[in-house]
Amino acid sequence: MKKNYKKIKYKKWHDKRSQKIGKKPKRNKPYDPNKLPIYKNARIEYIKAEPVIAPKNICLLSETHKSLEFYNELRRERNISKIGRTCFVQMDISKVEEFDYSSICVLIAIIRDLKSKGVYLRGNYPENTECKNKIIESGILTFMFDNNGKPFKKSEKSDLLFIEKGSKMLTREDNIRISKTVTNVVKHLTGNESHLPKLRTILLEICGNSIEWAETYNKQWLFGVKYDDDKAIFTITDVGKGILKTLNKKFKHKLRDTFLMKQDDEILQGAFIKKYGSSSRKVNRNKGLPSIKNGSDIGIIQNLKVVTNNVILHYDKEFKSEVLNKHEFRGTLYRWEVTANTILKAS
To answer: Region entry Disordered: which residue ranges (predicted)?
Structure first.
């Protein structure tokens, strides 16, 4: 009968016998997650790309050019690593010392867009303890994997809602979630659990306007709310074509803008006053942009900022608005704040 050397008594006998004849006994080697797996009679494709290193400051609204360069690198095909059928992008945020909620929402939208293409995002923690805790609280780890390809532990202090594009109308569930989020914001800032119809209307119109835009593979917009001590930060993020590339300007407006040599930021401001139609040419389109601008003008929302294509608009400080020449944002980000004072104005 053949001896089974996996059993303990035969394993000990085999070890002693191996020592006598001068051979070292075989031992199980420690698991190496980065080692390339080997399959018999098969070749596995292995592509090793360099990790995308984040700058120390990835605050989109203050360090716009560095942040946009970082986002664009994450989406470049040359930075995709591949092991067999597994594709991923390696992100290194170990040196990050400062970021804002807008950056987190853009990263989450990019992660979702990459995942829809079969590409996952791997990363690490910042070395800065305070920054590390903020990253954990933001909720971004829900969508990421560590350097070994294992999911992070989840923890978040923000609401993240994904709105489907191309569905032509908000679903009943979307309406309920948006209404509940508005109620949570009012309770957080005032202590009273009540509705805020004017703010809810702005969100429904901007989200209803956006669901018809199906320019990304995952066909989703990200609606995020972060609860700070004295304010709530709202963001709506898409990583598709952007507003300027989806506008349908009438021929006379094209001529006028050409002869007057209007800059892209002026054209974008025209979209917020419903000067141009959308690419779908539908009558009900482009209601969201004027609605959000009107909310800013009457004080329901404050610190409104919009980043799309090569333009960043600061509605609170117009002198800061600029046309971005170096890097372009493939997508659209709306960002504004709600405080207890703005709730009083909207009541």
So the answer is: 13-32
Q: Are residues 165 and 300 in the same domain?
A: yes
Q: How far apart are CA 345 and CA 297, in angstroms?
A: 12
Same domain, 99 and 183: no
Q: What are phi and psi of 194, to 5 degrees?
A: -145, 165
CA end-to-end span of the chain, whole Å?
Answer: 87
Query: Hey, what are 201's tokens?
Result: 């209307």
Dist. CA 87–CA 234, nearest whole Å:
32
Question: What does pTM read for this prediction?
Answer: 0.76
Domain encompassing residue 65: 46-143
Tokens 């489907």, residue located: 164
At a CB cut-off of 8 Å and minimum separation 6, what does 221 contact? 162, 163, 165, 207, 210, 211, 236, 237, 238
DSSP three-state, residue 341: helix
Last residue of a domain, one of 115, 143, 171: 143
Residues (pLDDT < 70) of the chain are 1-10, 20-44, 154-157, 163-169, 208-219, 248-261, 274-288
> What is the structure's pLDDT at 69?
93
* Under 8 Å between Cβ of 157 and 188: no
pLDDT at 238: 85
Distance from C-alpha of 92 to C-alpha of 244, rounded to nearest angstrom: 31
Count of domains observed in the chain: 2
User: How much is the pLDDT for 288?
Assistant: 64
pLDDT at 32: 62
Q: What is the CA radius of gyration of the chain?
A: 26
